[in-house]
Design goal:
heterodimer, A: alpha+beta, four-stranded antiparallel beta sheet, about 20% strand, B: 13 helices, about 85% helix, globular
């Protein structure tokens, strides 16, 4: 067929170029704009999001795949971009606190503050995409741009307070704050 | 990481073998390794500047171009300047080198005579008997034998330095993207630990390379000021050469010290106080270096037991010559970080089990599909 050769050539060129796809910048602006929809980053400006983009790592998980396990050393926080994540913990109170996370939610935030063991297992309930923010990279960001750090830490603190209050109110023998 | 197991003999065996292999490969492509390392130094030094420009409103790409453009201009000017100096002053350098070697040998001769006068036993020692009798000829021979080759080496290496801004540009522009692309190819089970590995390597390299630049600057400043106060000629150039020579652990410091004494002995042939003053200054700066500057700048991340360091220096020199001598410790530091972390990742039964589970899930999905 006369048209077959140009199409094959184009396909071959695409395959040859594919290893260098990571160098393409066209998708960057769209991805950064999507960050703004996530509650953790809603206070950040476009410039700040661009700087943060350097630190975020996108991961895809299959249904039933373990994201992290109880007892693992926590190294960072995960933000759900699509899909759902189930939390399974041997601690009953934690299990009741947040059994499931959806789009825009984040979990594992305590690992951003200290290198301790994970208190629960996180499993993808369906094909799920997450963004990971690694502790040491976050700390280096805090050191060089406190403005971004304060905005993220403020959102994180709100979530930690909300979850702590929920945990306290669910325990009848503890005083509520 | 907390509660990390100590590395065993097998791990250290692998680290040493891999280090030697890398040094062997580096020696084969030294024309690329040297500009690559300098570009890495440039990347770590210029990264804060690029980030500052991004924070001031420039796009990352534009900031990278502005900074590397400036670096390119500075490198070009430096190369042109050095080339013109090398071609016009080559003949003069030979005479100057011969003059200083002569001064050093004269000092050796005088010291020998003084020692002989005070300790007659030394008259029969091999050390004294081996001192060249014709000092003028020895100085001329040294200049003829080594200086020409050294100048040729400088002229040979200068053009490849133009690669430095080019490589720095790509590191500043796409270094982070490349790193993320590499991490993306790692299975989910090993993802967090791989991030830890990259972070450790990055920290080790950054602390070593930037630390060495700071250390060289501090050494040059202290030695330069000290030598200038003692009245030695070319004090800051001498300080810089001694500071650069100190990159080669142990042996570099000894050569630097000999160089300083040689110049002092030529400048002040009859003033023993100044010559010994230079020696004391050099020893003081080295002590400051080891106990104050080094912990402040490079840190202890890439430091090993002295026996291992010295053994590796010999091994590095055997495998890759001067390049091996210079690179063996930083390369071993990075290889140790990589192999130790890889060992932890690959021997972690929980992670392996999770990886097998993910593979199983993938196979099941493909079969159902």
């Amino acid at each position: 067929m006369p048209l077959g050769k140009p199409i094959e050539l184009r396909r071959t060129l695409e395959v040859m170029k594919s290893p260098f796809n990571f160098l393409r910048r066209s998708a960057d602006d769209q991805r950064i704009a999507n960050f703004k929809r996530l509650s953790l980053f809603r206070r950040l400006t476009a410039r700040e999001l661009r700087e943060l983009d350097e630190l975020l790592h996108a991961r895809s998980y299959q249904k039933d795949e373990v994201i992290f396990d109880e007892g693992d050393t926590g190294l960072g926080l995960f933000i759900v971009v699509s899909g759902r994540v189930k939390i399974v913990s041997s601690h009953e109170a934690l299990q009741r606190l947040a059994p499931e996370f959806g789009v825009g939610d984040y979990f594992g935030e305590l690992a951003l503050f200290e290198e301790s063991q994970r208190t629960a297992r996180a499993v993808a309930l369906e094909p799920t995409q997450v963004l990971a923010l690694f502790r040491t990279e976050f700390i280096s960001l805090l050191e060089r741009d406190r403005g971004i750090g304060v905005k993220i830490l403020f959102e994180l603190s709100r979530t930690v307070v909300r979850r702590s209050r929920k945990l306290l109110t669910s325990q009848p023998h503890l005083p509520t704050v | 990481m907390k509660n990390e197991p100590e590395s065993g003999i097998l791990t250290w065996g692998v680290i040493i073998v891999v280090t030697c292999l890398i040094l062997y490969l580096f020696e084969r492509v030294l024309w690329l390794v040297v500009p690559g390392l300098l570009a890495l130094v440039g990347y770590y030094c210029l990264q804060p500047l690029v980030r500052a420009l991004v924070r001031s409103g420039l796009k990352h790409r534009t900031a990278g171009r502005v900074v590397t453009g400036l670096l390119f201009l500075v490198t070009c000017l430096g190369v042109i300047l050095l080339l013109s100096m090398a071609t016009t002053r080559a003949a003069g350098w030979k005479a100057v080198t011969a003059h200083y070697v002569q001064g050093g040998l004269d000092f050796l001769g005088r010291t020998e005579a003084q020692l002989e006068a005070k300790l007659p036993l030394l008259k029969r020692s091999a050390l004294v008997q081996s001192t060249p009798t014709n000092l003028n000829a020895a100085a001329e021979n040294f200049a003829d034998k080594y200086l020409g080759g050294l100048l040729l080496q400088i002229v040979y290496w200068l053009p490849s330095l133009l690669l430095v801004p080019y490589l720095t540009y790509f590191m500043l522009q796409d270094g982070n993207r490349f790193k993320k692309h590499l991490i993306r190819s790692v299975p989910n089970a090993f993802f967090e630990k791989t991030l830890l590995l990259f972070d450790r390597v990055d920290r080790s390299l950054r602390s070593f390379l930037i630390g060495m630049v700071k250390l060289t600057f501090l050494d040059t400043a202290f030695l330069g000021v000290g030598l200038w106060l003692l009245g030695i000629s070319h004090s800051f150039l001498l300080g810089l050469i001694a500071a650069v020579l100190a990159w080669v652990p142990y042996a570099g410091s000894a050569v630097g010290c000999a160089l300083v004494v040689m110049v002092a002995a030529t400048d002040f042939p009859n003033d023993l106080a100044t010559i010994y003053g230079c020696l004391v200054l050099f020893v003081c700066v080295r002590i400051l270096d080891d106990f104050v500057f080094l912990p402040l700048t490079v840190g202890r991340s890439l430091r090993f037991h002295p026996v291992l360091s010295v053994s590796m220096l010999f091994l590095g020199a055997t495998v890759a010559g001067l390049a091996g001598l210079l690179l063996v410790l930083p390369v071993m530091g990075v290889v140790a970080v990589i192999i130790e972390t890889l060992g932890q990742i690959l021997t972690d039964e929980r992670l392996r089990k999770r990886y097998r589970h993910a593979r199983q899930l993938q196979r099941t999905t493909v079969e159902v599909g």
